[in-house]
């Protein structure tokens, strides 16, 4: 009934809907209507209540609830099961908990706010309320664990393609950072539970600074991090952006499940790479390497050229560019 009440309030946008009228429509008491209105407010909907007038939605809706996301999805299963929170410690933590249950692959844990968001290597990730996209996708693929690392690239490609739909040309710092104007806009954190030849689940956490202000970043981060709002001066519709990400993610993920085909993902990552053709520093397996990034191969491996012209393929690592280009 809660969602049906919401639909009526949306239909009567900017006008009051009688509480008595709602109780008659649904054949329930005014108290039951009040309880559902309270639940909607707890989810983040701004609803004005006036005695004798009823209820009215009072502001544009940019929540990441299932009701607001479904209209933006063109997927078969990705994001069709949304687990939404107003606040949570970490969407990845909750996703890992849920992944051990019977929730379907493609389920998404999303929160308006994270209190303990983190990036790779446990780094702090600011996640202010209603300012960004803080989500984790639960995947349960039938594949060998050795093929799981490319899920990160699929996530980066999906975010970049979704940004293109907003006219934003972001770049990818292999394998997991989304860069805009040489500052970090977002990142991907992929975690996996597996046995020898079996994946129990993969969690792909995606954090994007959408309408974040400078004041929302902790001290020091404002020098290396940015948001769509800071770079463009505009506010963006988060639920549409999240829907776009899931649409692109399912397309690229399905392609990968079909014979481990990464062609479309690699094309996006190459085209939008911020490191190819440049000298980088690469931390891999505890070793610091200085080399030139020359390509990403068909399996998602980074191809580097050492100073002695030796070519090497890298499965994973952390890339930097000597701090010459802002965050990079």
Tags for this model:
SH3 type barrels; 14 strands; 9 helices; 328 residues; alpha+beta; single chain; elongated; five-stranded antiparallel β-sheet; BirA Bifunctional Protein, domain 2; Arc Repressor Mutant, subunit A; seven-stranded mixed β-sheet
Which architecture of the largest domain per CATH?
A: 2-Layer Sandwich
Structural class: alpha+beta
CATH topology of the largest domain: BirA Bifunctional Protein, domain 2
Give the overall shape, derived from the CA principal axes: elongated
Q: Number of DSSP strands?
A: 14
Low-pLDDT residue intervals, each spanning 5 or more residues: none
How many separate helices? Answer: 9
Helicity, as a percent range: 25-40%
Q: Summarize the biggest pleated sheet.
A: 7 strands, mixed
Description:
The model has no long low-confidence stretch (mean pLDDT 89). This protein has nine helices and 14 strands. The relative contact order is 0.11. With 328 residues, it is α+β, with helices and mostly antiparallel strands. A hairpin with a 4-residue loop joins strand 8 and strand 9 (199-209). It folds into three domains: 2-57, Winged helix-like DNA-binding domain superfamily/Winged helix DNA-binding domain (Arc Repressor Mutant, subunit A, Orthogonal Bundle), CATH 1.10.10; 66-271, Bira Bifunctional Protein, Domain 2 (BirA Bifunctional Protein, domain 2), CATH 3.30.930; 279-320, SH3 type barrels.
Secondary-structure blueprint:
Blueprint: H1 2-11, H2 19-26, H3 30-43, E1 47-50, E2 54-57, H4 66-69, E3 82-85, H5 91-99, E4 108-111, E5 132-139, H6 151-164, E6 171-173, E7 177-180, E8 183-194, E9 199-209, H7 228-232, H8 238-257, H9 263-271, E10 279-284, E11 287-296, E12 302-305, E13 311-314, E14 318-320
Parallel strand pairs: 3-4
Antiparallel strand pairs: 1-2, 4-5, 5-9, 6-7, 7-8, 8-9, 10-11, 10-14, 11-12, 12-13
Helix pairs in contact: 2-3, 6-8, 6-9
